[in-house]
Design brief:
Elements (H helix, E strand, L loop, with lengths): L1 E6 L8 H8 L6 E4 L4 H4 L3 E5 L1 H4 L13 E8 L2 E7 L6 H18 L3 E2 L8 H12 L3 H11 L1
Antiparallel strand pairs: 1-5, 1-6, 2-3, 3-4, 4-5
Amino acid sequence: MKIILKVIDKKCLPKVAELVEIMWYKGVNVSRVGEEDSLIKGTSLSLSWDKWLDDERWKGHSKFKEYIYFEIEYTNSEQKLSIEVDENACFVDIRAVHRAAEYISERCNSLISMDKGEWIQLSEYRSIVGGYTKTSFSDAVQQSLSDI
């Protein structure tokens, strides 16, 4: 699954700690490839919640780790931020992607594309993904564990 946001100025992009708090919660154990200000600098970033460190129920599960990739793309004098996760990611990780996209779009006043063709406003995006973004973290974890 890939979501793309039009970003006019990279300075509006969040630092990693702020993004992690929005996606999961403050203090969660994450693996990171990239610097605290990777997005602002225009470099790529990968984040993964280390589920088994925070919740023993994830030990031994196939979805105990899922990387979410952030990359700045430059095309036709436009800057776009892509956020990508495996199509078969569990609910809690898909929720994290949608929460990141929603937060960044609001913060940067960005249009969003979920299919590479149509650009939509944040309000329309929220109506499409509300089932993910409105779910609490604990409920998303429970649903993910039930689905596995």
